[in-house]
Amino acid sequence: MKNTPKSTSSTYKRIFCVFCAFSWLFFLAANSTLAYSGGTGEPNNPYQIADVNNLLQLGADVNNYNKFFILTADIDLA
After folding, report:
1. Global pTM?
2. Are 21 and 9 in contact (CB under 8 A)?
3. What is the gyration radius of the CA atoms in the chain, in angstroms?
4. Where do runs of H (alpha helix) occur along 34-77?
5. Which of 3, 27, 37, 62 could form a disulfide with 48 if both were Cys (CB 3.0 to 4.6 A apart)?
6. Alpha-carbon gap, residue 3 to 22, rounded angstroms
7. Dihedral sign, CA of 16, 20, 21, 22?
8. Is residue 41 classed as helix, strand or coil in its secondary structure?
9. Is residue 36 classed exposed, middle or buried when 0-12, 13-18 and 19+ CB atoms within 10 A define those classes?
10. For residue 44, which phi and psi values (nearest 5 degrees)?
11. How far apart are the first and last CA of the chain?
12. pLDDT tens digits, the chain, 78 residues: what are they?
């Protein structure tokens, strides 16, 4: 039985699929760090609350209630 090498296009398709998977993971990781106006929610890098939208985002996401936050601007709710 003769071994034939895999086609080049098949190899490129696999590389493309791996690239897409890593791109998607990078996108998800980037979006998780872009929460609020900055920060990661850690004690040395708290999430930054800079406006009403950030405050509303905090109120809507109970998963972040145990994180660290800092108010970076006066917010007028009137």
Report:
1. 0.56
2. no
3. 22
4. 52-60
5. 37
6. 32
7. positive
8. coil
9. buried
10. -90, -5
11. 80
12. 566 555 667 777 777 666 555 555 454 444 444 679 999 999 999 999 999 999 999 999 899 999 999 999 999 888
CA 3 vs CA 6, 49, 72: distances in Å: 9, 62, 65
Cβ-contact 68, 43 below 8 angstroms: yes
Q: Which two tokens stand for residue 10?
A: 């098949």
**Amino acid residing at 5:** P
Q: How many CB atoms lie within 10 A of CB 75?
A: 13
- Give CA–CA dist 37/16, Å, rounded: 33
Position 44: which residue type? Answer: N
pLDDT of residue 35: 79
> Are 22 and 28 spatial neighbours (Cβ–Cβ below 8 Å)?
no
Here the tokens at position 7 are: 């086609």
